[in-house]
Design brief:
The chain has 15 helices and 17 strands. It is of the alpha/beta class and 466 residues long. It folds into three domains: 7-258, HUPs (Rossmann fold), CATH 3.40.50.620; 266-404, Isoleucyl-tRNA Synthetase, Domain 1 (Orthogonal Bundle), CATH 1.10.730; 418-465, no CATH class. α1 crosses α13. The longest helix is centred in the last third of the chain and has 23 residues, at 308-330. The structure holds one RNA strand of 75 nucleotides.
RNA sequence: GGCGCGGUAGCCAAGUGGUAAGGCAAAGGUCUGCAAAACCUUUAUUCGUCGGUUCGAUUCCGACCCGCGCCUCCA
């Protein structure tokens, strides 16, 4: 089977191939940097990360643009409240966002682009839309006239035909000619940041930045455009209207949308006290890998119920996989290899690939890894996992971690150098040999206090950091 | 009201027209000087409810109930 994605546009699972050469042109909606991003945002960004990694694992090159929305009403309001310029204000949260991404091991897009760096490009685009009769001006603001775009509603599958025809309202009373029209360019307001451009002073509306930056860096037709489900309407619908009016070409071939995250079965809201940023969770002592695992473990098209029990479970689940990986790397294995084991390793790796190929079914992909770990552990116990079986198993887990990226511990735990630890272990081994178990246990406890966990195995002592 | 997503064991969660993956938790066991790790066994005769189609439905159809999202700037 080949790679398939559910396309919001067609409401079907479709086979995916990039349109040109071997590179995927991917655009994803990034954060609006008016405060710290919350875990709901990171659910979507984690999905994008898994998407990136799986596209690459599938043999494709990546050309990915993610925008940073650094001008909007909230930003203008908050910056003014703090008596900062827009740039000063957004720099803080842009930096915070990048740090959070690094914490969660989210890859950075090839092009990370800011709206405010593309004001001139947006003005150009709006001028072209105006030349094409797609806009009108009202009180100094420029609006997109939806009546000029017949395909409006094709992404969100809303039928606006009834709404649009003859829905003219009094222009003196309403600034927009039609309720569905949206601002491309907003007239400057007293005391608000604005830019002088070829279409006059003002600032861009929300939707235009994505169309302009996507087309500028990736061309007129994207392979994939992705974001959260809440963006389907109106944001992405409006992007389509603008872009396709501009180019006459299909804006994006595939539209992928991540479902919402809930917290303890409820929607996340500041008023409910269940609103968490990544920093909140790290501050509570949860490991970034556990958060990453939890966010990635539920397939992106299912809403994800984020719970602290779940986070705890995620931490334990990772531990299990890490224990297996450690054993795989250190176990003394019998000579030769077992053909059946080799076949099962191959089958597990294939199951992993098949799962992710199927619209990124991460839950099933994880199951393949866990089932394999159990199988291989049993085989090792039974002496049916030979030295020749190791390489393929290691390769499978590398393939696993190239996508999930949860096996390597993070944090500043490399305090004590290994040789010192090894020396203590040797000391304990001597004590054990002399059957001085009290002394051996004492050393083990001391190491444990340093965050070093010892495991006695048939093939010697294995240790790991907590 | 319109559009969309979902309701599966204590929790998280996959899945298929043919009789329920995986993880966590819990209990018992094996191994071990003791631990740890690992492995084994047990935990859904049942997949929101009610009908229908079918030899057979959790999976298809219909109705209903519940949760969530969007319907003018929220991932």
């Amino acid at each position: 089977m080949s790679l398939r994605f559910y396309n919001t546009l067609s409401q079907r699972v479709e086979e995916f191939h990039p349109a040109r050469d071997n590179t995927v042109r991917l655009y994803t909606c990034g954060p609006t940097v008016y405060s710290y991003a919350h875990i709901g945002n990171f659910r979507t960004f984690t999905f994008v990360d898994i998407l990136r990694r799986w596209l690459r694992a599938s043999g494709y090159g990546l050309d990915h643009v993610m925008n940073i929305t650094d001008v909007d009403d909230k930003i203008i309001r908050n910056a003014a409240a703090e008596k900062k310029t827009l740039g000063e204000y957004t720099a803080v949260y842009t930096q915070a966002f990048l740090e959070d991404c690094a914490t969660l091991r989210l890859e950075v897009a090839e092009h990370l682009v800011k709206a405010t760096d593309h004001i001139g490009d947006m003005a150009d685009a709006i001028a072209r839309l105006t030349a094409g009769q797609h806009t009108y001006t009202s009180d100094g603001s420029v609006y997109f006239r939806i009546a000029t775009f017949p395909g409006y509603g094709k992404l969100s599958h809303n039928d606006f035909s009834g709404n649009l025809a003859g829905a003219r309202v009094d222009v003196d009373e309403y600034e927009k000619a039609d309720a569905r029209d949206f601002a491309l360019w907003k007239a400057p307001k007293e005391g608000e940041t604005s830019w002088d451009t070829k279409i006059g002073p003002g600032r861009p509306g929300w939707h235009i930045e994505c169309s302009v930056m996507a087309i500028k860096y990736l061309g007129e037709t994207l392979d994939i455009h992705a974001g959260g489900v809440d963006l389907i309407f109106p944001h992405h619908e409006n992007e389509i209207a603008q872009s396709e009016s501009l180019t006459g070409k299909q804006f994006s071939r595939f539209w992928l949308h991540a479902e919402f995250l809930m917290v303890e079965g409820q929607k996340m809201a500041k008023s409910l006290g269940n609103y968490f940023t990544l920093r909140d969770l790290i501050g509570r002592g949860y490991k970034p890998e556990a958060i990453r695992y939890l966010l990635a473990s539920v397939p992106y098209r299912k809403s994800l119920n984020f719970t602290f029990d779940g986070l705890q479970a995620a931490q334990m689940a990772i531990e299990r996989l890490r224990n297996f990986k450690l054993r795989l790397d250190t176990e003394k294995l019998p000579e030769g290899g077992d053909d059946k084991m080799a076949a099962r390793t191959e089958a597990a790796a294939q199951a992993f690939v098949n799962s992710l190929d199927d619209d990124l079914n991460t839950a099933e992909a994880l199951a393949a890894a866990f089932e394999y770990a159990r199988d291989a552990n049993s085989a090792m116990d039974a002496g049916q996992f030979g030295a020749d079986n190791r390489a393929a198993a290691v390769r499978f887990f590398e393939q696993f971690d190239a996508v999930f990226d949860v096996l390597k511990p993070s944090g500043a735990d490399a305090g004590d150098d290994d040789s010192k630890i090894e020396a203590r272990i040797a000391e304990r081994n001597a004590a054990k040999k002399a059957r001085n178990f009290a002394r051996a246990d004492q050393i083990r406890d001391e190491l444990l206090a340093m965050g070093i966990i010892l495991e006695d195995t048939k093939s010697g002592v294995r240790w790991k950091r907590k």
